[in-house]
Amino acid sequence: MALTEAQVQQLNVQFKGIPPEEIISWAVKHGQTPVVTTNFRPYEVAILHAVSEVKKDIPVVWCDTGYNTPKTYKHAEELTERLNLNIKLYVPKQTTAHRDAVMGIPQIDDPRHAEFTEQVKLEPFKRAMADFKPDVWFTNLRKGQTAHRDSLDILSLSKDGVLKVSPFYHWNDTQLDAYLKKYDLPNEHNYFDPTKVLANRECGLHS
C-alpha cells in the first residue's frame, strides 16, 4: 500500500474517533501482506483481539527477548490459545544463558547497551520484517507513551515505507480497560523489557 505523507495525514483526520475495527478492516482491505507485532506487554491483548477478529490468520510476529517474566509467558500462552493466534516466533541468535554469562543486562549508560538491544530486540525484528515483507504493520502504539510516539498518529509511515496502523492510538487506559471488560479479555502488568530502564523510553523499533 503506497501512500504519501499527505495522504496519511488526511486519513488520520478522517480516522480520529472511528472504531478500531473499522480502521483495521480498511487497512486489511487495502493491504497485501499485513502483520501484527506483539510483545505481550500490558494491553497488547486489545490489538491482538481486534486484529484477529477481522483477519483470523494474520501473522502475529512475537520477538521474544528471552527475558520475559513467567507471568508474561503464561499470558502469551493463554492468549495464543484463546484467540487462536497465528504466532510467528523470533528469538535472538544467542541464548539468554550465553549472553548472561558474557554480558548480562547492561545499564543504559553502558557502551554495550546498544549491542545488547541489537541482539535481543532489533536483529530479530529486522529478520521478521525481512521474512514477511509487510506493507501494513499493526501495532498498539498509543499517544502519551513516549515523546516520539506523541509525534505519530493512527497511521504513520516507517523508515522503510511500511504503513504502521495503531487503531487504539488515541485511547487511554480507562478506555482500554472498558474494551477488555466488554470482551472478557485478560491483561498482564507483570512485564519486563530489558532494553529499557525508564518506563517512557523508546524501545527502538518505532524510532
From TrEMBL:
Annotated Pfam families: PAPS_reduct
Domain annotation Phosphoadenosine phosphosulphate reductase: ranges: 34-187
Pathway(s) it belongs to: Sulfur metabolism; hydrogen sulfide biosynthesis; sulfite from sulfate
Cited InterPro entries: PAPS_reduct_dom (IPR002500), Rossmann-like_a/b/a_fold (IPR014729)
Family note: Belongs to the PAPS reductase family. CysH subfamily.
Protein name: Phosphoadenosine phosphosulfate reductase family protein
Protein's organism: Maribacter confluentis
